[in-house]
């Protein structure tokens, strides 16, 4: 047997949930050839073919069972298909073909999450700046993503951007525009293989801020954030968002009869939210310090209105304990 030291590397990028086929580039496996597929830093064996012995096998349970029910092996060409791929399957794959000579081929597979549409909100926390009277402060946000870039564009010109690589975090990017600005602005989130865009409508979003309502309460209490609406009109939508990432936690779409609450981010609102279906007001029960932060109400319909609440949650104070210090009773005084 001769050994061919040539190594052919391919880079493959794919979206999470898709399927990818790693090709051997063979029309048919020769009678005395063996095919081995390996994965990861440890080069764990995940599939193989021994044509002479008529053995075709897949090891779905290594490593850690991440390939279970996801591998397909072409018995004629030896090509390997990974179905319903996830970020766990990103990494290095090695194909080894042994027979009259030994050849190998490597694949570097990158798996990217499907991108959400960026969320543009009015940043009323900047309304106290000296330029607030002539400029509209905005925030474009996405949550829990990695290997992405978030950017603001004016027409086709890049204004600013921020990137994250390995960590899965929330990203926010500010922008200030004049209220009378007639230019076209858009916020774009992209990774190496896809992108999502939200276009800014200045006339709809850049309304005058009504101020930030400060709310302070004790841990374990309940608080109601009021919309000040007696009844939601038929064509209005109510959106409640929370935190720097503007995570959607509750919504009412009266026309479609949608009334929903979400326990994101990180499940901190699970079984704690109550939504008044008539007024849209939001109640947080048994509140904790995790619920401290900025809540934004958006009411959209004939016109767009918003209201911001800054909620601070404090622990209950214990009663001070006064004791006699007998350790100083032996002093001369």
TrEMBL record:
Residues 118-203 form the Ig-like domain. Signal peptide: none annotated. It comes from the Eukaryota. This is SLAM family member 5-like. The gene is LOC113100987.
């Amino acid at each position: 047997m001769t050994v061919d030291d040539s190594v052919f590397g391919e880079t493959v990028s794919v979206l999470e949930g898709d399927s990818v086929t790693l090709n051997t580039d063979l029309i048919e496996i020769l009678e005395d050839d063996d095919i081995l597929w390996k994965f990861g830093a440890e080069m764990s064996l995940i599939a193989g073919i021994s044509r002479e012995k008529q053995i075709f096998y897949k090891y779905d349970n290594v490593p850690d069972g991440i390939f279970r029910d996801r591998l397909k092996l072409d018995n004629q060409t030896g090509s390997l298909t990974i179905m319903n791929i996830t970020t766990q399957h990103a990494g290095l794959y090695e194909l080894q073909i042994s027979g009259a000579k030994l050849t190998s081929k490597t694949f570097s597979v990158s798996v990217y999450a499907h991108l959400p549409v960026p969320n543009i909100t009015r940043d009323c926390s900047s309304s106290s700046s000296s330029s607030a009277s002539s400029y509209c402060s905005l925030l474009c946000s996405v949550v829990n993503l990695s290997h992405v870039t978030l950017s603001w564009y004016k027409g086709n010109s890049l204004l600013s951007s921020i990137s994250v690589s390995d960590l899965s975090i929330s990203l926010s990017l500010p922008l200030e525009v004049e209220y009378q600005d007639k230019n076209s602005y858009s916020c774009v989130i992209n990774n190496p293989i896809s992108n999502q865009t939200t276009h800014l409508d200045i006339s709809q979003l850049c309304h005058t801020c009504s101020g930030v309502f400060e709310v302070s309460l004790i841990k374990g209490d309940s608080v109601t954030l009021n919309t000040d609406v007696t009844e939601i009109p038929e064509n209005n939508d109510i959106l409640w968002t929370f935190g720097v990432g503007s995570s959607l936690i509750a919504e009412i779409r009266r026309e479609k009869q949608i009334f929903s609450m979400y326990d994101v981010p990180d499940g901190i609102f699970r079984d704690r939210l109550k939504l008044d279906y008539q007024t849209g007001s939001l109640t947080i029960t048994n509140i904790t310090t995790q619920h401290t932060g900025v809540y934004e109400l958006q009411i959209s319909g004939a016109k767009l209105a918003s209201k911001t609440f800054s909620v601070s949650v404090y622990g209950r104070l214990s009663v001070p304990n006064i004791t006699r210090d007998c350790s100083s009773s032996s002093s001369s005084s």
